[in-house]
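Database export, one record per block. Field names are fixed; values are copied verbatim from the stored entry.
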Amino acid sequence: MTDTILKAATIITMDPANPRAEAIAFDSTSGIIAAVGTLAECQSAAPGVAVTDLGATVLMPGFIEAHSHPILGGLLTQPPVYWIAASNGYTTFAQVAALWTSVNADAPAGEPVVFYGLDRPTQGVGAPTNTTLDGYFPDRPAVVLDDSGHAVYVNSKVIAALGWPGGKPPADPPGATFGRNPDGTSNGIGYETAAIVAMAMPTIKQVVTDPLKSSAAFIHLMATNGITATSDMAYADSMTKAYEALLSQPDTPLRLSVYRSMSGPDAHKPVDTSLPAAMLKQEGVKIWADGSPFLGTLAASFPYLDSSVVQKAGIPIGPGSDANMNWTRQQIDPMLEGFAGTGLQAAAHINGDVALDIMLDSYERALATQGLLGTDHRWRIEHCGGARADQLERAHRMGAVLSLSLYQVVYWGDLLDGQLFASDIGSQWARTGDAVRAGMRISLHFDGPLSPPIPLTNIQCAVTRMSLAGHVHGPEQIISLDQALRAYTIDAAFGLRREQEIGSLEAGKLADLVELSMDPYLADPSQLAQQVKVQGTWLSGHRVDLASYLEQVAAVDPAAHPVDHADVVATHTC
């Protein structure tokens, strides 16, 4: 029964047939919208229902973060872990070093510590070895995780605790590398997932004793910034019980779409959960094609500049080309062929143009084999910072959808353009304008935990191409505010194949709302994220109480809803 009518200063519906409204009516039990329009129209749809006037508040569909990792975000960025990313305020290594010194002085003797987010290019530091970290943490285990998700750095106390005979790592696992000194002993560095898990996980487990609480804190952060729907792009069955606790509370603030690792043995298996599909929906599988632009592991045809930033960060100039692919074409083709007929989406992590060419070739082959070319399959390509315009046109012709890592321009635009890469590459990073001109319905994301999940910051960058420092990179890639808002609402829902449920405010859809302090169309584009404030969110017609949400999760027995720390980290490589 329709029991709620909200009146606002204006309602931005993201429905082109009815772009603005005065009021919205919905059933707070089912969460279904009954009417969106004038106050009189909503009162006609809900006779006798009292009107709640929100005054100057502006309503919109809740923001949709189409590419994220909520549990991983909780494990790596929330206390007791220290979040030392440049995007979280630690813009210089001097700031990081000062924190390390302070933490070592204040923490109880011998207590292990974990830090996430070392950003070597931005912070101006090379890869720290165990000897480097020993200087800051001589008497306690210390783990430092790279912001890219591709590397870990540990001190000698961690190496000793691992029990490697003579301090020498075992043979390198497939796709990963243990750093070694000339005598074969560990230098405290590990690259890629298997090495990161082996070196860091025992210490992380000691430090993060309540991962459910940490995960709730990251979800709280997302909701604080207006997000009502997201994804886990590296889902594993070991997360199911935790998500059942996180997404079943009275004040749960968001809904979730999940993607398993394509290379896993259970990639195609249906998710077995007690949660309704509206709260947790299985959408597809994910493959990590290449690495990171900030470690020199992207598969690209263009080199890095021989700059002081590149030299100090220890990045090979390259270009890395297909040597930086995590999988060969001969491995990718059979994986995609075996998956293409399942009805799920494929999604591919891609940073370099070579990786995108390879994945588009493989996508096209698998889709053609299954007779899916020309159908509404919506296979996804993720990040694509170093893509070319012609590649995006091809992707659109193939029916692919794109989720762009515009946050890399927000936080690293000043490095990408002219310090990491030549300006003709770096200024065009995350080609929002070319993607829209190609006809693509794009989404934008922050890939939590790689940067703070603040949609309004990405939206501001999309309409200005300004970095956080205020410098413009690639003005020809600017898109309109309407296109940017669509990329966080209806077009993001389209990319998740959920546009029939969420993404716009229309009768029959779910009442997922964000309350804004002002109309974003009236804001100064260069100050949009400062002028427009998120005042609250609604999920399925219920106004979320975020303080209560944290209390509700805290009351859950974590032992009954465990999180496998190793599985969470092992399934993610951004």
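Remark 1: The chain is about 35% helix and 20% strand.
Remark 2: The mean pLDDT is 95.
End of record.
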